[in-house]
Write a structure and sequence with these properties.
The complex is a heterodimer. Chain A is an alpha+beta fold. Chain A is about 45% helix and about 15% strand. Chain A has one domain (about 5-145): Sufe protein. Chain: A (Alpha-Beta Complex), CATH 3.90.1010. In chain A, helix 2 (about 10-20) crosses helix 3 (about 70-80), helix 3 (about 70-80) packs parallel to helix 6 (about 130-145) and helix 4 (about 85-100) runs antiparallel to helix 6 (about 130-145). Chain A starts with a helix and ends with a helix. The mean pLDDT of chain A is about 90. Chain B is an alpha/beta fold. Chain B folds into two domains: about 5-30 and about 295-400, Aspartate Aminotransferase, domain 1, CATH 3.90.1150; about 35-290, Type I PLP-dependent aspartate aminotransferase-like (Major domain) (Aspartate Aminotransferase, domain 2). Chain B has a seven-stranded mixed beta sheet with strand order 2-8-7-6-5-3-4, sandwiched between helices. Chain B has a four-stranded antiparallel beta sheet with strand order 11-12-15-14, covered by helices on one side. The radius of gyration of chain B is 22 Å and the shape is globular. The mean pLDDT of chain B is about 95. The chains are: A alpha+beta, B alpha/beta. At the A-B interface, helix 1 and helix 3 of A face helix 12 and helix 14 of B.
Chain lengths: ~150, ~400
Amino acid sequence: MSADLKKLYSSVIKAHNETPYHFEKPTTTLTIIKAYNPICGDRFDLYITSPITDYRLPLTLHFHGFGCAISKASTSVLIKSIEGKSLNDAMEIVDHFLRFINKELRDKELILPDEFLAFSGVHDFPERLECATLAWKEMKKYLESKNE
Amino acid sequence: MTPVTNSIKSLFPIFSNHPALVYLDNAATSQKPKSVIQSVIDYYEKENANVHRGLYKLSSSATTRYEEVRNKVAKLIGASDPNSISFTKGTTESINVVAHGFLKKLLMAGDSVVISGMEHHANLIPWQQVCKEKKALLRIIPVDGDGNLDLSTLDSLLTTNTRLLAITHISNVLGTINPIEEIISCAHKKNIPVLIDAAQSAGHYPIDIKNLDADFLVFSAHKMFGPLGAGVLFSLEKYRNQIEPLNYGGGAIKNVEFDHTEFLEYPHNLEAGTPNISGVIGLGEAIDFIQSLDMKSSILYTNELMIYFKEKLNSLPFVKPFGNPVKSGSIVSFQVKNVHPHDVAGFLGNVNIAVRAGHHCAQPLLESLGVPSTVRVSFAIYNTKEDVDRTISALIDLKKFWS
């Protein structure tokens, strides 16, 4: 077993893949953000169940769908990281994660939560970058549209 | 004729450049033998000139080489007339030519086009879009749980308003070999023309267009050891003057005035612009390569590999195979329980085993199988039992890694 692969599927990613955070379809939803990758067939719906008030995201967000372990875990970490946050904070978190995956962070910005660092393995597998960022990119678009 | 042996692998330079490579993605594209690659290089190094109307030796020889391939393709599929062969970019373009250049003007509101539930998107979307535009219906021959067509529905699907039946010879997901002779004869009883998508079969399985009696047959060079970007549209003579080009331009004309153009006849009217000359020459070389083999032995060999793989796969309790068609080509789809197909393909890729994971451009079929994606393994003549053993052992390692 190559070390690269072990790093790619770190214990954090495996855990989020097996028991993803708030992985369910809520009975009522206000907004569904579609994170679909037509090329590989990954499809996640990100659910916002209550209105965004005072520029804060609701306290619980959910997601459901299917995709590889990397995309499922990364969506799970996204949902867990931003629920209940202010729009500005959420945007900052999303931006931070995306810049980390794209290797755009400056050294002093490299203090990251373990759940972000768990995705550093994709740096050795460029074909999996899309898996790690799919839901994050769609969330970024949504947050930007709400913050205008 | 060369019998199929392990030495065939040595004819494909990709394997000397990647000695550890187990290439099991042949349904996506085959590897190319040295002779095909060399023919493309030779064309550019020694023969490069544009075809048709060049009054110098290089051009006339390029034209001869290009036109000779029409003969080779015609012979490969048992067509008597080389001018039944039009060169395209590939299967997708060939189907689009028939959909837009032929079918569209015949199709009226309420008419129908019949396809099957196992079509590649290339043999679905062009018909779907034309039907939408003309308010016609796209009707589907259903696929049963084993991956066979449910032909009991065919008679009722083919009506007096059906303008075309388009069907794949071999499924690119499940490997099903469809009884196209039976399907064509059923359609012809009702005077419905039939297009056969031979992308997975041409060059690998015998096709005799005279016996088959298909009206249109389409395929790509790159899935039969040829170069990328070259493909074929065969059309029966009676339809040839009814097919209009997708592209207009130079090379396809007899006479041009500002308000009028007189076009060349099929197949040249469809080949406007400078064609993919090196690709077509490479296709010719691929046909020579195929004819140097014994096709029957090749089929037996790849079938044997497919059966050996299926048997081993079925012995793994954590694997779920899809489809068990009555007649099958050397394509197998499966899932590893609780591991997403992309993670399976990524894991195998990490140990130099190339397989494909995803919907294989056949989303409606996968929907009917109840899954968003599968892992697909597809064999060609250069694969070996050792390739199968390595794949099975990697799947066992993968299961350990994920449990």
